[in-house]
Design goal:
15 strands, 5-stranded mixed sheet, D-Maltodextrin-Binding Protein, domain 2, 6-stranded mixed sheet
Length: about 350
């Protein structure tokens, strides 16, 4: 049995180590400040994932007791997060905006329409943006949720709940698809076309009957970048005029989207709900008890309180077969709707307000 005296001695030693670590932490942060100023002077990126990985692997090799490997890795990662956050604050770029794809993608274009002065960070997949927000790499995310022609981007509705984020704004972007090819290519040269699946769906009238092999890719801008790098006149991509210019491609056919009013809604997400007086849209998510008439009873409350329901999306619950979550966009400010929303909450199995913004 450990004696009280022994425990007190151990605590004294821990306190001594904490004081030493405090001094070292302060010394480290002073160096971090110098690094930030150096990066600013030399126009260098704050985020350097490749270097961080090398630093962690190198430091782990210094461990004598390998039992602490996982804990030490977490300690190093947390140190780096603190350092990056401090550097971004020093340089006035603490509000980094994340998006899926590469520069020139429609997500990037939507992002720049609202956050032209902010630093942006690209991610390969939709979920990577949510994960980046959870890990503190970004404060804001911009992601597509619905297209006027092809409908919902369902993955992102699922990810809203998985990562418990909130919708703080909606950006609507007119989408004009074009068939792009390398310099000097002609439309009759194209045999294969690369695009995000949404690009194919939204341009099906143009693509139909041309015999192109449609190859799905991460998004339209990455497709254009890939075709540009290939330099093959038989390869084409679907993308924006901005993307064509950015990756030095020719526009072989303009405005190939089937619907002239092709528009995509992008949601702006953050880690906390922001409710303001000028907001006139509220987004909720709820589930009902799996019994007859329960959904109609909840929906009936909207009519009872005179709430205009602008849209409703259903998504299956992953953990329970044949049960669903319902995402609903309501017209009105959250504070004004609160009384009726509380009544809806009482009738629902699960209920949460996940969005507040201005249309």
């Amino acid at each position: 049995m450990v004696k009280i005296k022994d425990i007190e001695e151990l605590r004294v030693r821990i306190n001594q180590i904490d004081r030493e670590m405090g001094k070292l932490f302060e010394e480290r942060m002073n160096i971090v400040k110098d690094v930030a100023l150096y990066k600013k002077t030399h126009n260098m990126e704050i985020l350097d994932d490749a270097r961080e990985k090398v630093v962690i692997e190198k430091n782990i090799k210094n461990l004598i007791n390998i039992e602490f490997k996982d804990a030490y890795t977490e300690f190093l990662e947390d140190n780096m997060k603190i350092s990056k956050k401090y550097q971004k604050k020093l340089l006035g770029i603490d509000k980094v905006v994340g998006y899926q794809g590469v520069e020139g993608s429609f997500s990037h274009i939507a992002l720049k329409s609202k956050y032209s002065e902010k630093v942006s960070k690209s991610y390969k997949n939709f979920e990577d943006v949510f994960s980046g927000m959870k890990d503190g790499e970004i404060e804001i995310g911009v992601l597509p949720i619905e297209n006027s022609y092809t409908g919902d981007i369902t993955d992102n509705f699922d990810l809203i709940k998985k990562y418990n984020v909130f919708v703080v704004d909606i950006i609507e972007l007119k989408i004009n698809h074009n068939l792009l090819g390398v310099k000097g290519s002609k439309i009759m040269d194209i045999k294969e076309v690369y695009s995000h699946i949404q690009g194919f769906k939204q341009s099906q009238k143009f693509l139909s009957g041309r015999g192109y092999k449609e190859i799905p890719y991460y998004n339209t801008a990455i497709s254009a970048k890939y075709v540009s790098e290939l330099g093959d006149i038989t390869k084409g991509a679907i993308g924006s005029a901005e993307t064509a210019k950015l990756y030095n491609l020719d526009i072989l056919a303009k405005n190939i989207n089937t619907n002239d009013n092709n528009t995509t809604k992008f949601m702006v997400i953050k880690n906390k709900l922001e409710v303001e007086q000028n907001h006139n849209r509220t987004m909720i998510v709820f589930s009902t008890h799996n019994k007859s008439g329960d959904l109609s009873s909840v929906l009936g409350e909207f009519s009872r309180y005179g709430i205009n329901m602008l849209s409703i999306k259903s998504r299956p619950l992953k953990e329970v077969s044949w049960e669903y979550m319902f995402f609903v966009e309501l017209e009105g400010n959250y504070e004004k709707l609160k009384k009726s929303i509380d009544r809806l909450k009482e009738k629902s199995k699960y209920f949460e307000v996940i969005g507040s913004y201005e249309k």
